[in-house]
Amino acid sequence: MSIDNLKNGLPEYAKDLKLNLGSLARSTELSEQQLWGTFVATAAATRNDQVISEISEEAKTHLSDEAYNAALAAASIMAMNNVAYRGRAWLGDDYTQVRMGLRMNVISKPGIEKADFELFSLAVSTINGCEHCTIAHEKTVREEGLTKEQVFESVKIAATVAGVAQALQIADAI
User: Catalysed reaction(s) (predicted)?
Assistant: First the structure.
């Protein structure tokens, strides 16, 4: 199993990440699609080849093709949106009314349930450090009926996957 490959590849100083990765992969707080889609989207957001490959391999056994592609779409569109929205916020109030003008049709037609795609987008936005997008997606998933516990479960997955990617990068470098 690929999550096991990641856990086994982590150095001793990343033991907490190993434990968190294992427990989150068994979480029952989210549906299977929400859980594995969040894993795929956040793995893609780390830009770490090993993390993307290992998580994708296992996730494909849990996700439909549509859900897998939606998770990758969430990572991709949030890579663009998180930069654009953060940049606009940094530029100040004079830019709040400037039209974004970027295509983001996948958000309205992701091919899966809106709440799930928005949850993936929220998790990716936390990795990418976009407060505006994280808050906006949290509002949407809550309106779609997800609980605070489900929202935070996706944040914990994002945090752990980001930590795993960093620990593996460190281990490769030293």
Answer: N(6)-[(R)-dihydrolipoyl]-L-lysyl-[lipoyl-carrier protein] + a hydroperoxide = N(6)-[(R)-lipoyl]-L-lysyl-[lipoyl-carrier protein] + an alcohol + H2O
Q: Which residue has the tokens 């150095």?
A: 11
Point out the residues that are catalytic.
Answer: 130, 133
Within 8 A by CB and 6+ apart from 146, the residues are 115, 119
**Distance in angstroms (rounded) separating the CA atoms of residues 115 and 173:** 38
Q: How far apart are CA 140 and CA 146, in angstroms?
A: 9
pTM of the model: 0.95
pLDDT tens sequence across 86-119: 999 999 999 989 999 999 999 999 999 999 999 9
* Domains of the chain as residue ranges with CATH: 2-173 (1.20.1290.10)
Distance CA 17, CA 21 (A): 6
Kindly report, residue by residue over 147-164, the tens digit of the pLDDT: 999 999 999 999 999 999
